[in-house]
Amino acid sequence: MATINSTGFWLATTERAVRTFAQTLIAALGLDAADVLALPWGRGLALAGIAAILSVVTSIATGTTGSSGPGITETANTVEGAAPQGLNR
């Protein structure tokens, strides 16, 4: 069972939040560039920030659900300071 007190869990959670932030910002600004959605930089950054916060909340909420990572299918390396692993296969 996962523990949210481990370094591996927080490394994986941080990686997920950064990925979510970048994906949301690129999507929002891409929609603006394609004239699908009029969104200034400030609002795009705010949207990406909220998505990253929700990603962290989701990681914490699912952090104790059977696997050893911040998500239901992800695993976090249990070695202190080690990088997180990918999806279980």
Characterization of this structure:
The protein has 89 residues and is an all-alpha fold. It has a domain at 7-62. 55% of the residues lie in helices and 0% in strands. It contains 2 helices and no strands. It has helices at residues 7-33, 41-62. Helix 1 (7-33) packs antiparallel against helix 2. The chain is elongated. The mean pLDDT is 78. Residues 64-89 are annotated as: Disordered. It comes from Streptomyces indicus. Residues 64-75 have a biased composition (Low complexity). This is Phage r1t holin.
Main sheet: strands, sense, barrel = none
**Which structural category do the helix and sheet elements fall into?**
mainly alpha
Query: How far is the N terminus from the C terminus?
Result: 18 Å
List SSEs in N-to-C order: HH
Strand content: under 5%
CA radius of gyration is: 15 Å
The amount of helix comes to 55-70%
Spans of at least 5 consecutive residues with low confidence? none
List the helices and strands and how they pair.
Layout: H1 7-33, H2 41-62
Helix pairs in contact: 1-2
Protein name: Phage r1t holin
Region (Disordered): 64-89
Biased composition (Low complexity): 64-75
Characteristic terms for this protein:
Holin_r1t; 89 residues; single chain; mainly alpha; Phage r1t holin; elongated; 2 helices
In short:
It comes from Streptomyces indicus. Helix content is 55%, strand content 0%.
